[in-house]
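S.,

As promised, the nicotinamide-adenine-dinucleotide run. Input:
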Amino acid sequence: MRRGLYIGRFQPYHLGHHTVIRQISADVDELIIAIGSAQRSHEPDNPFTAGERVLMVTRALSELCVKHYAIPVEDIQRNVLWASHVISMVPPFDVVYSNNPLVTRLFREAVVPVEHSPLFKRKEYSGTEIRRRMLSGEEWEHLVPGSVAAIINEVGGVERLRAVAAQDK
Ligand code: NAD
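Predicted complex:
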């Protein structure tokens, strides 16, 4: 039994994440998706709640044939303790998949193996770019799985992002 951990903020879950997870699925029996910064929502860089992100990941991964668990994990103030914090919140795992340099460093210091995953169309498949498009009224739906676009529309995600990014000047 090989269980992998993939951690991200998923603001929102997009086709870059989805393509990586499709590939990782071939290497593991089970996959844990940790929804990072779970306490954050209703912010320009973090518009979606942990529950909405659980829904995005769960619906999108139902297309793939991998047993998975989507688990929200809040941030903590001390980076040095963060890998232990994540380990305490999720099922046991054998390997972490990440390209985030801080995530990689913190897990390696905790003696947990980390594998890098390939990047796909990083400029377009990017939470920052998708949120920018939502704010400017450009097309964004083609950059996320169809099920995720439906959830964002269902919760009024674009309207919320515009509201929380607005200024009272
Ligand atoms: P993210 O959603 O930006 O990315 C998740 C993963 O997907 C990363 O490995 C990233 O490289 C990859 N990715 C992004 N675009 C891709 C593309 N186009 N193709 C392929 N892969 C792509 O999330 P993140 O910022 O990496 O999430 C890390 C989480 O860990 C955050 O929530 C952060 O707050 C948390 N964290 C917390 C602490 C703490 O609390 N002290 C410390 C470290 C990290």
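The chain has one domain: 3-164. The radius of gyration is 16 Å.

- D.
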